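User: I'm putting together a teaching handout on how multi-component assemblies are represented. Below are the sequence lines for each component of a complex, exactly as they appear in our records. Could you produce the 3D structure of the whole assembly as structure tokens, so the students can see both representations side by side? Please keep the chain order the same as the input.
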Amino acid sequence: MNDMVVVRKEGLYCVPGDFYIDPWRPVDRAVITHAHADHARTGHGHYLATADGAAILRARLGEIRLDALRYGDSVTHNGVALSLHPAGHVLGSAQLRMEYRGEVWVASGDYKLEQDGTCAAFESVRCDTFITESTFGMPIYRWQPQAEIFDDINAWWRRNASEGRTSVLFCYAFGKAQRILHGLDPTIGGIVCHGAVTPLNALYREAGVALPPTLAVGDVEDKAMLRQALVLAPPSAAGSPWMRRFGDYSDAFASGWMRLRGSRRRRGVDRGFVLSDHADWPGLLSAIAASGARRIIVTHGQIPIMVRWLQQNGLDAGAFDTEYGGEEEVSETGDVDKVDSNKDAPASAEGQSEHA
Amino acid sequence: MRDFAHLYAELDATTATNRKLEALQAYFRHADAADAAWAVYFLAGGKPRQAVPTKLLRHCAMQYAQLDEWLFDECYQAVGDLAETIAHVLPPAMRDDDLGLNLWMEQRVAPLRGADAETVRAALFSYWDVLDWQGRFLLSKLIGGGFRVGVSKLLVTRALAVVAEVDAKTIAQRLVGWTDRSTRPTAAGFADLIAPPSEADRQRRGGQPYPFFLAHPLLADPATLGELGDWQAEWKYDGIRAQLVHREGCSWLWSRGEELITERFPELAQLPLPDGVVIDGEIVIRRGEGGGGVIAPFADLQKRIGRKTLSAKLLAELPAALIVYDLLELDGEDLRGRPQQERRALLEKLAEDIPALTLAPVIGPAEAADWSALARLRESARARGVEGMMLKEKSAHYGIGRTKNVGTWWKWKIDPYSVDAVLIYAQSGHGRRASLYTDYTFAVWDAADETGERRLVPFAKAYSGLTDAEIARVDRIIRSSTVEKFGPVRSVKPSMVFEIGFEGIAASPRHKAGIAVRFPRILRIRDDKPVAEADSLSTLQALLDEAEGHHAARRD
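Assistant: Of course. Below is the structure of the complete assembly, with chains in the same order as your input.
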């Protein structure tokens, strides 16, 4: 039987359905797993995405022709039954299930298994072929429960606040920032958000996600409150003039890459919190096992390692060469700055690097 | 163990000195004395011998984590640190116990040394069963001997001084020798370390040396130092800094790392000194007939350091000498609070009665009357087989470590040798530079063969001298121009030229180029220079001839 999904220069292509999945070049029909910049691009003729993610997608891509589908609902296109299932990555993120003539393929997009309270929790979908990400596909990546990480973040903030120093926490503006907001203890002090974070907070709140009150810097009337405040800002704000207003501050970075001491020290921040919206090694393996798939195709991250491991464990494993992530940089150097080159594109500035 | 692991994590997590100091103080205030003794040992730079061979440690970790060797190797290459890799890959512990650092060292780590593989395996598995991430990370460091943490000895001293409410200078003095392998950290030792000041602090007993006073590199124009007449200028020898302590009829020789090295230099231990004398100087190897007056290149000294047993032949071929430049104790009296020139005068007087004592000559006004004359004289450093000059404030006391509060010592080194070389291999770095290609091998051209072909011959490895931004750029070029991968090493298409600086050069049959250089480092990237215009072996040979020539000439 021919493969249901192949990789073309435009992106992953569903052959019988004649549509693309998270394509990186303009196409007529695109199914978008989630609204991060490397998965959701402008210029496609028609978009299909989840109802939960529709507002964010529109906010980021502007006027698009978008069909929104609720999780679990199915539509048929050229004989392929499509449905979207929660991926637990960010608000509105989905795995795409495709069924054609009794065969089922699932494309995971990005996913994590731990329920974070800001988006629908990952649901395992049985399939014959599972197309998976592998951003953290190495045994060195093993996350602690998020409750422990939030305890650490809150303790760091509490201590800074007691010493009258602003806590600046760098993180990706879409997804990670809202997940952190959700986990913060707002009794410690005020929470200030960078302009890249604020619009996404609004979209999350509109979607019914409970987030504590936040302020923009411009709204802060009593500058003294900044000394007890926690500031959420995208990594690109580090070292920018925007930071000067905080005087003596302690800074931290929240990302899966902070797992490695080397990456942490290269960042040059006071603290690194290991918090990722991607599955860790045990998470990837359990998602792959739960899919029941006998064939696995790895799209981005630690491809050769994951493929070799799966093959050793008796699965039919291969890879698709995609443009998600920015593989070489992300996988080998853990460089989280890889998309700073788009700084001049204001609309995407906050959506830059969402790979951790 | 848990408390120390947390301390380690805190020291590791912050870059702020005050935070580190607080963490150290909090630890020392609450720690059990025996545990604290070991903590001081490690934090002050103690390096115990490896308790388990690295290979065995790796194998046990792979087995416990149920990882194949290839996968473990991939992990290690991404992380760049074995202890960290192991901590990352082991599945979470099921139980947890809390034994103190002292008991860990004495009852759990020490018995591993020399034990058979099965015993080690069973022991490690049982240890990993009860340790969390931090504990496991620390355990590998304790076992493997590669313990390093971002605190200076000075910071540890300051923390102890606050906790003990004892002057930091006294603590520094008591700390000397703590990290020598022959000393075992004990609760009693720690109690002495933080005890109130007493007569014992003034009395010098046993072989205890003084904390070394360290020099700062002089980067500014020396004329900014004021009057030349206020400074004592000496040549700077390229050897091993050492203190020779002679008390109660015995000699102790200490290296700057506060290791006891008496047995490695028996000829220095035999120097006829009166009791109650401590001298400071540089160990060098003399060359030429009858232990002539020529100082051999550092490479010769390395041959002595590397040797465990010293044959009579070796002692005759490579005789060591201590070039003395300071007197820290005389008749059992601590002279460190006296001015430099007074100590020098006392040293010269002492040397009058002891012909075997070689003093570092002071460069007087007859040789250089002003700063510019001194600078001209410094140009001859390489020909003299020295690294440059030392400038010591005549009023300076002998301070502790790299302090400037009681007067300053400046080291005024000559510019390094330099050649333009081509990057041909790269390996990923460690620690902060893990998973970036930062360790490079550089090559120069050999002579053309009959067909006019030239090949690149590796001559030096270097990994320092670039900024983070430059490292990132070079890393990208390496990734995009890789020819082959051998394990963690990549060979790259020769495309980048670097100016490589080094301090010394010597013939070496062990190296492919037949030449070994000392302290190679990157001075700058030569983007302006095509690969074909990089230097050749003949350039290095000329530098070698020049260096050897000077040594030979001085022999006459």
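A couple of points students might notice: The interface with chain A takes residues 12-16, 65, 67-68, 70-71, 74-75, 78-81, 84-85, 88-89, 92, 430-436, 468, 472, 475, 479 of chain B (CB under 8 Å). The two ends of chain B are 61 Å apart (CA to CA).
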